[in-house]
Amino acid sequence: MYLVTDDGVVMFDTPWDTTQFQPLLDSIKTRHNKNVILCLATHFHEDRTGGLQYYAQKGIKTYTTRQTDELSKRRNMKRAEFLIDKDTVFKAGQYTFQTYFPGPGHAPDNIIIWFEKEKVLYGGCLIKSADDRDLGNLSDANVKEYAITLEKVKAKCRKPKYIIPGHGNWINTSSLEHSLQMAQQLRAKN
User: What pTM does this model have?
Assistant: First the structure.
């Protein structure tokens, strides 16, 4: 996902395929005549952080949480230039958005992005598309906490107009509730 602002473009997460790093920047520049100024990864998996080093070398400010950085460092993965220690409000152009760490779920460090004024929730891989039949990659998931974490997201992000999952369709705003139901079922099985 990316956000076009008066000051430039903010990218949320990066491609993991190295052949897509520059084409994405080129596409954004062609489509919006703006440069990417900031990139924020929502957890340590490669499909979120793979391009951080490349984008930092291009002069784009890259951010992750300190927890994401620790996990990335331990696993010898790409790391951001700047670290955030707590839930943080960013301002870019005419928009304000907030990072929020609700707890472990898909990954121990997953954060969401909340645009309170616009009521837009970017859930990263924590929230699955309403079309998904399962919670996807659970190799780093906290099965017992996943549902609790999603309940915290529901409490924080009231009445979102749009919910954008990390993968898949974002047209259906029931994706948060759908993800919660799948997390509750998964917890009940374990």
Answer: 0.95
